[in-house]
Structure formats: structure tokens, C-alpha cells
Amino acid sequence: METITGSDALLRSLLNEGVDTIFGYPGGSVIPVYDRLYDYKDKIRHILVRHEQGATHAAQGYARVSGKVGVALVTSGPGATNTLTGIADALMDSTPIVVITGQVASPLLGTDAFQEIDVLGITQPITKWTYQIRKAEDVAWAVSRAFYIASTGRPGPVVLDFTKDAQIGSVDYKYEKIHFIRSYQPEPEIRQDRIIEAAKLINVAKKPFCLIGQGVILGHAEKELMEFLQKNDIPAGATTLGLSAVPSDFPQFKGMLGMHGNVGPNRKTNECDVLIAVGMRFDDRVTGDLNHYAKQAKVIHLDIDNSEIGKNVKVEVKVLGNAKKTLPAITQLLEERKRTKWNAEFEPDMKEETEKVINPELHPKTPYLKMGEVVNKVSEAVHGDAVLVTDVGQNQMMGVRYFKFKRTRSVVTSGGLGTMGFGLPAAIGAKVGAPDRTVCFFTGDGGLQMTIQEMGTIMQEHLNVKIILLDNTVLGMVRQWQDLFFHQRYSFTDLANPKFTEIAKAYGFGTREVSKREELDEAIKEMLDYDGPFLLIADVEKSDMVYPMIPAGKPVTNILMGDE
Amino acid sequence: METKKLYTVIIFSENIAGLLNQITIIFTRRQLNIETLSVSPSAIAGIHKFTITTFSTEDTIDKVVKQIDKRVDILKAYYNTDEDLVYQEIALYKLSTDAFIKMGTSEEMIRRYDAKVLFMNETCVVLEKTGHYEETQQLFKELSDSIGVLQFIRSGRIAITKSKVERLSDMLTEMEKKMTKANE
To answer: I want to staple B52 with a disulfide (CB 3.0 to 4.6 A). Which of A25, A245, B9, B93 is the partner?
Structure first.
């Protein structure tokens, strides 16, 4: 055993957990850690962000594409409070991250010392676990526990608040990986009776329909899900975060669920006789009015989190467990079926949506560019192989509607919290987490400016991120609601924007602005061929809206198609 | 609308600072007022027991308890209604010694309420009564109406389940087995 400082113990513990990347920002109460980090430069890549919120979102983007735990390192006080949005976002979207915040020395705790804030108190409601390390000898234990908790069961954010005296204190270092916590059951026992019940219900179903959630991706159960869907020929829709769990052209895949999802999956939710939800939580953006949601169907809910089952929707068969195990157990008991007629019932809905929404969006006759058109062109140019990162709002809904996927873990977007400003730093994390993949980040002029300073991080780290700014000079989604539900009173949704090309140039990005349809293909090609970060600005019409749309709180069958 | 009822939530947790906050924020989010709260070390060393009463619908309390149970440092959380429980609260009443002696019926009252004199000096008498809320409240009312009460305090509810199942020990046994497995 060797005596080292708490800071060293932290870095060694991170190495023991397989960490090779940290997104961070130094400050007064974390300087001892940064001092030691100087000697770990060959083992740990530290990416200096421009704002601590960026560190957490980058850690999220990294975790989402790589499946590993993302790590953020920040200082106390404002450093810590700046991370809150990212931590809350990670909780809502079940993203495994560990955020290490510096803290004032323990004798100063509770005295309103300079840059002291009650990190435990303010992060407890938005974390899976929070712990304050006050002694160097607790470091190894706390780090091991943090990674175990963040990455197992339903993943989520963990905060370690690390006091300065613990950072400089000494410890006889020994690392033991934790595999067990007596008060924590990450993977509940699977009940065979429930498996049998679920299989029985599906076997006798005439119109089963499956909802794919992110739990499939988090549980690495993509293959198991596809086998399940294929064997019994069950059509399926995906939540926004469940996208890319199966390829976009998978035969049983019928599209996205929810407010701006595809018509078929939403309508069929209220026509199916058995609804099988896998690793999703019936968010209100998916269900609309719960009083008119799948009332005719018997619901089977597969989830690893017991508190999600029955939370929003009454469940007939509760299948608690990891989808990687529960799905194949059910599949084994399923009859091989061909449900040609039922699968074909999605076609008229798709035809209607194509005519009313998709064709006008992708092949418009308007003089100006449309958002969906741009997304579709980029998606075609990367052959569905890229990682899609989005910000929040119209750019997000257009992105997830029209981007196509071949591989899992290809969508990085803020689902539950809906965090504007998420996209740019998340794209940084995505590129670092999947360096061999093309990262296409779609954003709006509102969201981009919320974290635009992270272009500096991209510059410093030479990250090849492709940014497609759908510039409509307004806060488009809010404007859409104002248009539809607030009598066209466009209250504070107009933006006076800077010259984005100039900003891109200042940060050393390649850049191009495009407003003509005939230049779009070539502009996209220029962006993709460019060796380095690129900002492509597509000027789109400010009055454009995202359709289809189920107004908030309305039944899933109440679908607006636009131009009616 | 489902009617609200008094539920007793029983929670076993690791003895870690900040646990109470983790629990109460879950009540706060659902706008549930905590009626009574009692926290103490349990029979098992290192494990704390929380007994919380609150008015709620069964649907809500079920979801709240699941969200509490999910917290990493919580060993077990469950809820019961009064029928499933043996439960008590303890109340202390501070009375003026003069008034108490002059009352004349004090001995009879103490017997009738199964209360006891906990402390007495020349200025005050402190009575103790254990019972359900209604019982301790009844004594308070009778004393208030007759000689007046100088101070009154009632503890949170403590409760024990009548059922055959011992959820905490069952859970611990199960977890011990898992630990042995994990360490193998």
C-alpha cells in the first residue's frame, strides 16, 4: 500500500473505473485535483469546457453514445450550481454521469464560506445518489460506489462533493470495486409467472403493439427486442429516446410516438388490443390525455424501475427486470406468427401523413428552405450512419422525425427535461465518445446561443463536429404554440441574431450559409467533406411549424396535420 | 375522486446524513403534508426507522412509497392503514401544581385515562399519556377545559405491523444471499 493524497486517490480511482475522459472546468476549491491531473495527462484526457453546464451536457453526450459513464469535474459554489441543469437532465433521461464538485474545506462547511454552497441539499432531488467526501480515506469507496450506482439498474447521475481538505489529505490507497450495496437492488428478480402471463396475452392478441423506450438501449437489449418483434410479427413505435434501438427500416418499426410522432403509431395506440411497453415511462408527451390513452388495450409493462410501472397507466401485467433478460424469456414462449393484415393497417396512416405532412416538408414547392428538407438531405448524405444530436424545439422534432438510423445509440437529445442549450456541449461529448462516427448536430438559433461559448471547446480540442443551424430567427416552437393556441400573439419570440458565419470564422470553423434549394446538396457536401468543425446555416422560414401535432393534454388520436 | 385516508409509511434506511431530506422531498413534490414523523435507530444496528403519517389517496401513497423505496440508501419502504398496525403516540401535559391539587378529581382522571404523573414540583406537574391521537387529545381537552394546560407536546406515531411477514428481515436475508453470491 502506498500513501497518496486524496486528489491522487480520486484520479487513480477514476482510472480503476476505466475513465479516460473528463469534461471539466477548474476553480478555487478543486485546484489540488487539477494540480495532480497535470501528471495524468497521458492517461486521462481532460476537455476544458467554457461553462460548467457544458461539462455536464458533454458528459451526457459521451455517455449516451458510448454506454460508458460520463465524468464532469468542476469547482464549488457557482461551478457546482452551473452543473444543475445537466444533472437534472441526466436524471430525467437516465444517463449515467458522475459529477465531481470541489467543496470548501470541511471546517468551513456551513459557515457561508467563499464559494460554499450546499451541494448535497440542492442535488439530492435531481440525482440518483449524492455523497460528500470529507476524508481522503473515503475517496476510493465513494468513487467505486458512485460508478456502480450511476451505471447499474436504471442509470442516472451521481454527485460527489469533494472537500478541499480531503483533496490534500493523505490516504493509504487501495481500490476495491463495489458490486453490491445491501440497500440497492439494481436488477430485480424476474418473476416467471409474469413472463408466462405476458406471453399468453401476446399469443392470444389480435392486434398487439409495442412501445420501444430508451430502456432497450440502456439494457443493451436491441437484439433481444428485434427477435421479440420478429417472432410474433409485432408492430412497434419508439419514444424519442427509444429511436435507433432498431434500424429505421426494420420491418416492424412504424415510427415515432408522441406529440410530433408519426400518425400510425399514435392512432394504433388507441386501436391495439395488447400494448407492450418496453423500457419507457409513459411521459405526457407520449400519452397526451391519459383518460383517452389505450383504454381498450391490456397493457404489459417491462421496466427495470418498479416505481415507473403503473405510475401513469394502469398495467395488466407487470414485468419487472432488465429487458435484456425479460424480453428473450417472453420471446421463448411466443408463437411464431405472421400478422400481415395488422401490420398493413399502419399503411393508410403513413400514406395520409406522407401526403399531408412529409411530402410538403421534404419536397416543398416553397421558395425558401424547410427544416425537414434540410434534415432529410443531411441524413441521406451520411447514409443513416451518423450520430444525430439535437437541441430542443422545432430543430429537435424535425431532427428526430426525418433523420434515419442504422445503428443503436445514434440519438442524443434532451428528452425529459427539454433543455435548450443541451445540444452543442452534448455534441462535443458525442464526438469524443464516438470519434469514428460523424456527428451531426441540428440546432436552432435560440438554443445555439444558450451555450454558444462551447464553440471554443470544439476549437481547442479540434473536434470534427458538424453543426447544422436551422435559422428561422425566432424561438420557433414557442412561436408555433403562440400561433396555434395563443391567437398569434408572438410575445418575445423574435431574435435579433449575430452573423453566425462571422462567429464560426472567429472560432476557426468552416462555415457556409445556404438559403437556396439548388445549393443545399452542395453545401451539405462541403460541410461533410470539410476536415474539421463546420457550421452550416440553413435559412428557413420563420412561420414553419412541426406537424403532425397532438396538442398538449389532448388524446393521441387528436392529430393536427397543418393547413386544415 | 378517491378519498383520502391516513396512511402510515414505514421506512428503513442506512444511517447516513441527509436521508430525511431525500424522503421529505418526495412528499413535497406530491403536495403531501406530513402529519407526524418519528425517527429512531431500529432493532438492527446501523439501520434507522422512519414512521411517517400522512393523509393521501392509496394511488398516490403507493407511488410515493415506490419512489422512496427506489432511493439507493433506503432499505425498505412500505405503507399501512391503521387496521394493519399496532400504534401509539405519547403525550406530555404540563399543569400548574396548585390547580392540579385543587381540582380534586385528579386521581380519578389519571386512572380513567391510564395516564401517569411523570414529574412534580411546587410549580408544575407533568402528566404522561400513551395512546392514539383521539385519546391523548381527549385528555388535553378535558384538562384545558378544567384547569388549563401550560405546555403540551405529542410525539409522532410509532407503529408495528400485525402481519406475519417481516419485510425488513426478509429483505435483509435475501440481500445477504446476494452479497455472498456477488462476492464469490
So the answer is: B9
pLDDT of B184 reads: 66
- Nearest CB to A306 within list B13, B66, B172: B66
Name chain B contacts of A121, Cβ cutoff 8 Å.
Answer: 18, 21
How far is A432 from A464, CA to CA, in rounded Å?
9
pLDDT higher than 90, residue B163: no
Q: Which of B29, B62, B74 sits opposite A183 (nearest CB)?
A: B74
Q: Give the model's pLDDT for residue A459.
A: 98
What is A192-347's CATH number? 3.40.50.1220
Q: Which of A184, A257, A268, A267 is CA-nearest to residue A234?
A: A268
> What is the ipTM metric for this complex?
0.92
- Could you tell me the three cell numbers for A105? 474545506
**A192-347 and A367-539, same CATH topology:** yes
Residue A564 has pLDDT above 70, yes or no: no
Q: Where are the domains of chain A?
A: 2-173, 192-347, 367-539
Q: Which helix (H) or strand (E) holds B95?
A: strand B85-96
Grid coordinates belonging to A54: 457544458
CB of A211 closer than 8 Å to CB of A287? no
- pLDDT of B183 > 80? The answer is no
C-alpha cell at A79: 461551478
CATH number for B115: 3.30.70.1150
Contact list, A146 vs chain B (CB under 8 Å): none
